[in-house]
Inverse folding.
């Protein structure tokens, strides 16, 4: 396997983990969201690396579609954050726990 | 006549029009539409009748539509046109029409006027379905349909307490009979694989089912239905209570037509009954017993309509007596004449009640003949007809029933005929007595009401005119089916018997037997006895209520115990109440407490409790913190990956 | 892989890691966003190295150009920096458990790569030039999108439309609520 592919895959794993860390430890919903974006990008990186390894375009196409999905997700997610903010005047996700059982 | 279904369709049309638009139409229009619909039915039946005679063709079936086609089960909307169904259709539609016209006067001031006529039209449609159906299932539709209308009309004045209760009683008691009837129908299908009367008759008569027991069972179950619908002992108790309905309804449904459905059904199935002597004897005995039982109750009742109600039960008993001794055509003949004079009597009593502002107690009447002369004549003609005063309709039909009973000799009980005849004669005595007692109490003796307060008046012409037509029928209806004795004297052959006999089994032997000299002697003998008995009853009433007016009070004291038993109708209602109703109620209460509240609710509550408890246990997982959820999700995803690995490793 | 490529890759990877770490650790969301933008740029460079120039361009355009700008908009419009939060409740062990989970995750991923045989040195037989050329070509990607992947591609447009409508509906001020507040 080409070294660049290997490095990319390792980088992808590290970035994914860091994105997850952002989601788990940060309380600001916007930063959590950025973590999600980072995870998506890490996945994209893996896809593109495999695309290169396999010499096939499919990985790139999937990455492209991922971008569209990410864009849609951001639109919806930020809209939700905006409406929560409008409602609570606060951006702490721990304060939004009214679904508690 | 392929358009016979119009006879049913027209009243149904009336139902739709009056049911949906009746409240927005003037009253005159509602009544007129309803009456015209029934007149249409009558015309259709009449045309069918004339065609039937002209063609001299036998019975034929008019297929309208297939209904259920589940081979081998085939049920259709088919109508059987033969002598029997035509006689029934004519009687029903004619009497219904007259009663519709009468109702336009009687119900003129009632709030439920459109509703009343809607129900009445529906009733006629259902009754015609019942009599014209060519198979048992369609007949059962009509059977239940008239039961429904009966229930609706008994409870017509639903704001009062008694009518709805009476309606429910009628419905439930009928249900018992209908249950037996249904079992009978199912057994028929099980044995013969068909519901169609024509096919059934062929099967029964050709492959005469091995062993008479199943046949007898079927016949008895079917008769159970007839007992309920036609108010025979022991299920007669609903009919007297049914008098809570409007009087024209009592006349139409609970005297002239619906209650005779059982007699019609037994006659329609006569091919089956004639195969089983046991069932025949049961029918005859139940009929005879009901006749004398109800007749004896009628002797002392004080409510003008209740006397007539028990009289109806008694007359229906006569019809079953006739059917039970194999004289089906006479049963139908008596049904035919009875429809006229009993409808007349009820309508006349309705006029009395109308004129007396709702008073029904005969002890508070008297001397009404001068106030309402027409009604007096109507009642008198009806009473004479039902009592068997010679040369009126009731005389001919009742006389032939008694003669048929007299001459019958079933193999299993040769003397049954004599016993049945004696019972019938005693009943005839009762009949004449209670009818003329009623005449004297209502019309002839001194007024026992406050003449200053109540001003009895004659009914309007819309009520009087139909009664005159019925009165004419009560006099003349008997002449189309004269007994052999009279037919010979005035050279008027019996037209009724050959007309209906085609549809019946074994109807011929009674008249044929009468040709012998000895039979003629017997007929003269029984006829004479009938006449004597009728006059005796009349005379007794005359003596007790006219000549020695007031003597009855002494008699009541002298025979206090029997009088009380009769007045309370043998305590049958009380007996049923304590034997069936109260235990049933207690049982239901216990069931509702133990089964419903205990078991069913208990199970439901237990399930709810378990779900709740599980939820309580799992509740802490739902912290509401999105970061917790994210953690679970991540952990789950990792776990899934690890599991996948393990799975792959195993491969 | 020549030396220049390697140097570029290492630089880009370092930038990406720094960006990611900065994003996670910044207290200020604006800084987080800026760090993430740096990360995305670095990723775009790596995409180029992985012979995906179209995606590299799109990465810059879509992520940094559109998505991150949207983030910044939201932050600027709605959230004042340094806002004090009245913490209702914080999950005391969340960081600890998250750390464990993250360690497990990275172990699983690396172990996965290892067991998948990624690290085994394998002589790289490549009649490379041609293949890489095909991967690199925007034309090839375009024809793939409009032939084999036509349906998913079109469905993506539907998804974007739905997202747009959803965002409008969610973020719109409820008129009914306004009226009620006035009353």
């Amino acid at each position: 396997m080409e070294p660049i592919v290997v490095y990319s895959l390792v980088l992808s794993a590290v970035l994914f983990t860091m994105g997850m860390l952002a989601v788990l430890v940060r309380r600001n919903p916007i930063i959590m969201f950025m973590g999600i974006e980072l995870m998506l990008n890490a996945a994209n990186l893996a896809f593109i690396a495999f695309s290169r390894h396999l010499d096939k375009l499919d990985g790139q196409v999937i990455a492209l579609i991922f971008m569209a999905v990410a864009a849609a997700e951001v639109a919806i997610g930020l809209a939700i954050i905006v409406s929560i903010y409008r409602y609570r005047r606060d951006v702490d996700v721990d304060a939004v726990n009214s679904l508690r059982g | 006549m392929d358009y016979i279904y119009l006879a049913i369709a027209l009243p149904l049309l009336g139902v739709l029009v009056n049911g949906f638009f009746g409240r927005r139409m003037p009253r005159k229009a509602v009544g007129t539409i309803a009456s015209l619909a029934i007149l249409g039915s009558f015309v259709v039946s009449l045309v069918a009748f004339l065609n039937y005679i002209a063609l001299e063709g036998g019975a034929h079936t008019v297929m309208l539509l297939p209904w259920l086609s589940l081979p081998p089960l085939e049920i259709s909307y088919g109508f059987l046109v033969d002598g029997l169904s035509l006689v029934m259709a004519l009687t029903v539609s004619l009497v219904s029409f007259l009663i519709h016209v009468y109702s336009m006067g009687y119900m003129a001031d009632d709030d439920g006027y459109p509703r009343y006529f809607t129900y009445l039209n529906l009733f006629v449609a259902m009754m015609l379905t019942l009599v014209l159906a060519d198979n048992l299932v369609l007949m059962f539709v009509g059977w239940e349909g008239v039961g429904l209308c009966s229930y609706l009309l008994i409870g017509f004045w639903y704001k009062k307490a008694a009518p709805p209760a009476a309606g429910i009683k009628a419905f439930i008691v009928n249900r018992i009979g209908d249950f037996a009837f249904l079992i009978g129908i199912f057994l028929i299908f099980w044995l013969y694989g068909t519901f169609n009367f024509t096919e059934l008759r062929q099967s029964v008569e050709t492959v005469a089912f091995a062993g008479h027991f199943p046949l007898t069972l079927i016949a008895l179950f079917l008769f159970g239905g007839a007992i309920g619908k036609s108010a025979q002992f022991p299920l007669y108790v609903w009919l007297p209570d049914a008098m809570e309905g409007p009087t024209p309804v009592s006349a139409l449904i609970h005297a002239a037509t619906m209650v005779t459905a059982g007699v019609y059904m037994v006659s329609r199935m006569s091919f089956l009954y004639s195969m089983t002597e046991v069932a025949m004897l049961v029918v005859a005995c139940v009929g005879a017993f009901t006749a004398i039982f109800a007749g004896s109750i009628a002797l002392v009742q004080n409510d003008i309509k209740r006397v007539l109600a028990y009289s109806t039960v008694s007359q229906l008993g006569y019809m079953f007596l006739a059917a039970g001794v194999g004289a089906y055509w006479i049963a139908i003949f008596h049904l035919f004449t009875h429809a006229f004079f009993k409808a007349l009597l009820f309508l006349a009593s309705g006029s009395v009640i109308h004129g007396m502002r709702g008073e029904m107690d005969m002890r508070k009447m008297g001397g009404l003949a001068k106030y309402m002369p027409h009604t007096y004549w109507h009642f008198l003609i009806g009473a004479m007809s039902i009592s068997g005063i010679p040369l009126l309709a009731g005389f001919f039909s009742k006389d032939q029933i008694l003669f048929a009973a007299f001459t019958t000799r079933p193999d299993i009980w040769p003397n049954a005929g004599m016993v049945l005849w004696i019972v019938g004669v005693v009943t005839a005595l009762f009949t004449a007595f209670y009818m003329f007692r009623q005449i004297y109490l209502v019309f002839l003796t001194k007024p026992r009401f406050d003449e200053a307060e109540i001003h009895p008046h004659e009914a309007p012409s819309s009520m009087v005119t139909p009664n005159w037509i019925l009165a004419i029928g009560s006099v003349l209806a008997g002449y189309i089916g004269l007994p052999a004795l009279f037919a010979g004297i005035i050279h008027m052959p019996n037209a009724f018997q050959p007309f209906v006999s085609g549809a019946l089994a074994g109807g011929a032997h009674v008249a044929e037997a009468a040709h012998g000299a000895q039979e003629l002697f017997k007929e003269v003998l029984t006829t004479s006895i009938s006449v004597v008995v009728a006059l005796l009853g009349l005379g007794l009433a005359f003596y007790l209520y006219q000549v020695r007016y007031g003597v009855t009070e002494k008699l009541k004291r002298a025979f206090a115990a029997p009088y009380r038993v009769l007045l309370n109708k043998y305590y049958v209602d009380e007996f049923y109440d304590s034997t069936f109703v109260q235990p049933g109620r207690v049982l239901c209460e216990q069931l509702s407490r133990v089964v419903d509240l205990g078991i069913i609710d208990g199970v439901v509550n237990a399930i709810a409790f378990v779900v709740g408890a599980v939820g309580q246990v799992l509740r802490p997982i739902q912290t509401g913190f999105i970061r917790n959820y994210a953690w679970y999700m991540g952990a789950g995803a990792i776990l899934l990956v690890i599991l996948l690995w393990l799975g792959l490793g195993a491969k | 892989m020549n030396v220049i490529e390697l140097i570029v890759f290492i630089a880009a990877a370092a930038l990406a890691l720094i960006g990611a770490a900065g994003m996670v650790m910044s207290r200020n969301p604006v800084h987080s966003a800026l760090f993430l933008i740096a990360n995305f740029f670095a990723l775009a460079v790596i995409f180029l190295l992985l012979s995906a120039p179209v995606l590299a361009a799109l990465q810059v355009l879509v992520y940094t150009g559109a998505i991150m700008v949207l983030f910044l908009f939201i932050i600027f419009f709605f959230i004042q920096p340094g806002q004090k939060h009245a913490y209702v409740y914080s999950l005391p062990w969340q960081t600890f458990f998250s750390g464990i989970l993250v360690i497990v995750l990275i172990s699983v991923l690396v172990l996965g790569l290892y067991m998948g045989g990624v690290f085994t040195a394998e002589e790289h037989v490549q009649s490379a030039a041609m293949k890489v050329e095909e991967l690199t070509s925007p034309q090839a990607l375009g024809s793939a999108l409009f032939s084999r992947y036509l349906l998913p591609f079109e469905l993506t447009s539907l998804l974007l439309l739905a997202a747009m409508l959803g965002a409008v509906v969610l973020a719109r001020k409820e008129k009914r609520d306004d009226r009620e507040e006035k009353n």
Observations:
- Chain A touches chain C through 72 residues (CB under 8 Å).
